[in-house]
């Protein structure tokens, strides 16, 4: 484990130098990196965005020293490789795992992160009552928690995860953003934290992943088990007027959405009013070629919101 102060300073130096990078899907990332001329990094976006191997001289000396101190560089001799990426969202920088995110402790950031954070901030804009306590379940980089904290600066926002690497990055990212209300905590869902919440947000793993990678596999035959567990937790821990914003995904087979059907069963009798919508009806199309989604006609990403009445 490297020096968190060095990792923080690395992010600060990149931001001060005008670094920006929008992270794409893994499939797009791989396609772009396969193009002729993209084999080796030529600038900082190639190093910290595209995760390309780089000659040490491509990175200024101060940044190289910070990478070494933070323990986020593989020194391969003539070519080095960063173990982290830095991505832009909401005028902030977020550190997360380098591409490809194959390791079990990988911390993912990508288009779904942007979508989830937007759904969370949309919910905040629609609320009449202020948020005083919120939780980001499976926080990863804490992008969602930070987006909430920036808009509810007096709120306590717990960023919970079971991945120690995610909690390290969440802490660094919260300091980079200056959001002191974000509190990273090790917890399996909300099992290890107390109290109720005005807002619960989550972008859990939702894929059917034969490799069983923690950051990707949602559990159960349809990849929806973790999403359903979060619905159960929220039904017990939301305050009156509190809302769950769940960003997830689901394989559609024969026009049937198994997540919507299962969510309806879980929410029945809870007294929560809920909505469910597809944010994008066709994502991760490359997964349809594999056995896990052999029966699916498409994979959709969705947002479920569930709100407890103020009178309950």
From TrEMBL:
Methyltransferase small domain boundaries = 130-246
Does Transferase count among this protein's keywords?
yes
Checking PROSITE patterns in the record gives: N6_MTASE
Q: Name one GO molecular function term.
A: methyltransferase activity
Q: Which residues form the signal peptide?
A: none
Q: Which Pfam families match?
A: MTS
Alphabetical keyword list = Methyltransferase, Transferase
What biological processes does GO assign it?
Answer: methylation
Official protein name in the record: Class I SAM-dependent methyltransferase
Provenance organism: Actinoplanes oblitus
